[in-house]
Amino acid sequence: MRPPWVKRPVPARPPGFSPEWAGGLKGTRRAMPAGARGQPAPHPASATVGQEHDTWRDWFRALTGVKPAVQLNPAQVRPSKWTCRHESAYASAAFERLKDTIDLGNGNTQPIVVRRVDDGYEVVTDQGSWRCRCVVLAGGACNLPTIPDVAAAVPAGVDHVNPLDYRRPDELADGGVLVIGAAATGLQLAEEIHASGRPVTLSVGEHVRMPRTYRGADIQHWMESIGRLDERYDEVDEIVKARKVASPQLVGTPERRTLDLDSVTATGVQLRGRLGAIRDGVAMFSGGLRNHCALADQKLGRLLDDIDLWITEHGLEGEVGPAERYEPTPVTRGAPLTLDLNSGEITTIVWATGFHPDLSWVELPVFDSAGHLRHDGGVVLDAPGAYFLGASFLRRRKSSFLHGSVDDTRDLADHLVGHLDGPG
What we know:
This protein has helices at residues 55-58, 89-98, 184-195, 219-225, 239-242, 261-266, 289-313, 405-421; strands at 40-41, 46-49, 64-68, 82-84, 111-117, 120-125, 128-132, 134-137, 144-145, 159-161, 176-180, 200-203, 213-214, 217-218, 270-272, 275-279, 282-285, 338-340, 346-351, 355-356, 362-363, 375-376, 379-380, 386-388.
């Protein structure tokens, strides 16, 4: 029986659809089918469950993506366009077209619970419920900010802000700002806040250094060309670690500039090592800043070597710019390892320490002791017919990007169809 929210027949191989609407923004646009109002719906084949919410619309005003827009919708945008916040209207337009296929109810359907019943699942929302043989958990990977336990030790006089709550610098208290985390979001925040006239200290741990362009083309073009973005989850040695790698230090701007530790320190941002603890109001940083930067420089060098080799093997030397190597990240010797948060020098801490999915509405025995969903490339373990979509490195290194989710969706659709064709 066709699910009640489907207005047109669903193709045997549904086209790719990702909850990640904004490339490297880590923002999500989540579609929740409404189902029947106030009563159990018929038993459809499958349901995609998430929460409809424009996370990327709510983020700070200057936020930009890390991906060229051509990788979001190759058939409809020009390669020169970026996933800048103010240029994301085409994503909304695509979502509007999706409404022709999926009934979104009043546009604010919230999942309450997904649980196992009989030979399938029951999906309960604030607008009704239904049962299905398969369920796809597509709520996005970045619903909630990940705040480390050390935050509990911050003195009462210091404000806390996370990237989902931050809007612009003038909403922060006057005084210095400590930004924890130096991935794409942390760097953009540190740069914008410092430009507002506030002193900024940036706490740096492991990070991924990357130039915006290399040899005349966008770095993401080369990443795709050499096959790096197509690496599969079952081809890497430590997939759990790979899924936790920070997003690359990239920013999308019309001038295609590079954003890295060198550029922000040149403006006056102060660097510290990874935040390890806060004791009696004193922040204590790791002494490994130089090592973290050296490791990032080394990994960048290996990536550029791979790109150069690919260019040579394909006979493109005369068609692209010359090879180049970048100076090591400058790190001042003897950077302080402590910062007294009681002194009044720091009035705000911004926790740019990552995000995680909100799966609190999933009442299934599918979580490990740390609360992480157990799955094999999106196929949820110990829950036949349950799938997970929209996570970082779900099945490929490009999984968290819109264009990368297409292949993941097709793989999981094949598995889902096979499950439906099986017994039951």
